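Minimal example, chain plus calcium ion.
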Amino acid sequence: MAAPNILVVEDEESLSLLLRYNLESEGYHVDVSDRGDEAELKLRENVPDLLLLDWMLPGLSGIELCRRVRARDETRNLPVIMLTARGEETERIRGLSTGADDYVVKPFSVPELMARVKAMLRRAKPQVVSRLLQAGDLEMDRETHRVHRATREIHLGPTEFKLLEFFLQSPGRVFSREQLLDGVWGHDVYVDERTVDVHVGRLRKAINKGRATDPIRTVRGAGYSLDDQFPV
Ligand code: CA
């Protein structure tokens, strides 16, 4: 199962290390940033599944970053948990409606924060934590690694499996080749964008045997999308 990605934005190094350690122990992929402006750039490159955001940050404050996150289509629904120091600005933040989904006051209990992270992912993005993913007559079981189209079992190579898993986490959403590369192959791997076309082609071939409707849409000049609903 692909682990949910969490971006931690915190300038206190000891706290950032503690959060990374605990989140990774829970099985999440963690990226950290110690500046608000740097975090904004990261969010433009890649949208995580959840953002843990400190309130006071160099570069750009957490509150401003949260506003900008809400103003962009790509991150409008990104779950945000804001970390605030006790007494610091807590009341003011609450009154300001920053758009954060939850607030945690420092110093906080790590198990409590972990529980809140899990609850929020479950609520906001059930598809990143759920075992079964589905769109139309396509169904994927991430634990047994089995894929079915209606009653037919589909055998996929590891890359096609990850690609389909990625599409099934956000059916209907259009992904650029670059976003697919980041999401499926990872940021640190150099792969040509044409590779994406090759693997999308293989995935199509595997899932569209016979006269089945092709659920993958090629969006000219933009990329690819897996339809949420399609005639079966
Ligand atoms: Ca801080």
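The pocket of calcium ion is lined by residues 11-12, 54, 56-57 (CB under 6 Å). The first strand starts at residue 5 and ends at 9.
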